[in-house]
Amino acid sequence: MKRTIIxxxxxxxxxxxxxxxxxxxxxxxxxxxxxxxTIRSDHLSCYGYxxxxxxxxxxxxxxxxxxxxxxxxxxxxxxSHASIMTGLHxxxxxxxxxxxxxxxxxxxxxxxxxxxGYTTGGFVSTRIIESRIGFGQGxxxxxxxxxxxxxxxxxxxxxxxxxxxxxxxxxGDITTDIALYWLEExxxxxxxxxxxxxxxxLPYTPPDEYGFMYNTEYHAYLEKIRNPxxxxxxxxxxxxxxxxxxxxxxxxxxxxxxxxxxxRLMQVDKEFLTPRKYTPELVEEMxxxxxxxxxxADEQVGRVxxxxxxxxxxxxxxxxxxxxxxxxxxxxxxxxGHHRHLYQGSLMIPLIMKFPGIDKKRVDKPITxxxxxxxxxxxxxxxxxxxxxxxSYWSLIKKNSNIRVPEYQIFATYSGFPxxxxxxxxxxxxxxxxxxxxxxxxxxxxxxxxxxxxxxRMETRFHKFAIIEGDWKLIRIxxxxxxxxxxxxxxxxxxxxxxxxxxxxxxEEVFKKxxxxxxxxxxxxxxxxIPEQLQERTEEEKREEIRxxxxxxxx
Length: 555
Hints:
Blueprint: H1 2-26, E1 30-36, H2 55-61, E2 65-67, E3 70-71, H3 77-86, H4 90-93, H5 109-115, E4 119-123, E5 141-143, H6 172-185, E6 191-197, H7 208-214, H8 218-226, H9 228-234, H10 257-265, H11 280-310, E7 317-323, E8 328-329, E9 336-337, H12 344-347, E10 351-354, E11 361-363, E12 367-368, H13 372-380, H14 394-399, E13 408-413, H15 427-451, E14 455-456, H16 458-461, E15 464-469, E16 472-478, E17 486-492, H17 508-524, E18 527-528, H18 539-551
Parallel strand pairs: 1-6, 1-7, 2-11, 3-12, 4-5, 4-6
Antiparallel strand pairs: 2-10, 7-10, 8-9, 13-15, 14-18, 15-16, 16-17
Helix pairs in contact: 2-11, 6-11, 7-11
């Protein structure tokens, strides 16, 4: 009898161990994707920055894959995240500006993961990647940006029929609080979680604890950038800096209508306002505040990683920490921002990946944000029928074997043409212009209904392109709507990493080769626009998009 009981218990134990082993072997690991907005790799201490801005990410990098040559294919938040989530180049998914919707025709990362049996949760910190424009696709739970009083972790914003008036962004600690609550609730499930942090974006106004970290006169700095004249003159991407008060999240305010009226009356154009208020001291203060924002974001990353370790699932989770694009910090064009230029500061991003069972290493091969999804699917052995522009780095990661990396990489930006100073127009010319605009709109509406599809022309949506091959980088700039108004800049980014010496007139062979490849790429991306993007939006949706872009400083 005793022997039977002992045998039975042994069998139960063996079955239990086998069952657990089978679940671990058959089931895929958890997945955590953390994207940090506007963060350039050379301002992280794990990438060699002199300030210890990222202690939590540093510890994570010490046991992970650190990619030293990662770049974003477009320095804009919405298109860049669309590339991360679809594995497609902006010329393919055709999201060419912020707040532009992602077509449902493309399979998104969360959608693929949910079909593979994952419970999916998304948490974003800005409205330009919210569920309204397609980023909630595939998520079981998606937390959009809400005012603090309605930012409830139990509330799934993607399923709300009517939403209260909301802020354009929220601080990273608020978004992380919601993500931590969701992770606690779903810790026993196989999950895919996406956390997005927006804090390093202009204006640089970290909480006091992080602002004083690198600037003992932080409050004096805040007073400088709150000056309305400075706001209108100095910021390239941002119209109004946030008004930050101690203990409260930064709030972006709309530009006063009276100021806008007088700017129009006096023919003031913010594209031509010179940054007269910048001084070397202020430039250093802004960079210090930017570093403070990064350290604040790093603190949120640490909170999430600590939870995974506390719940003993850290080792069984694929973790990706990356930027969506970088930031130019006054080193080029006397400019703070990212979306107007394709210099290295706005393209270089941190990318750190941890896979269970894979040893730490530094990877020097060039990689883009388009390659994240194909690599992840290969690691999980998930079949996907959607064709992608990105390539999988899994063979390099798993076996350290050689993979065929593209010899060149192409980047694009939507920046608009340089605005010309306003001139007085004769009344007759104004009337003619208005009539011509009406005729043009009417013509395209008729053509759309008759022909059915318009042709997507990459060169009409993106006004700047860059191509990198080896040490060489060529930038193509369309300076006006006229087809022939094109300028080029050519740099050797190994010998001249700050891109100070334009060699387009001296290196004729290199210039000819790269410009030919670039022209061919642009021609290949001409194709019919996908049906979802041809659907007319309501006037309210158009006004909402304009309000969002203005509040975030892109208009």
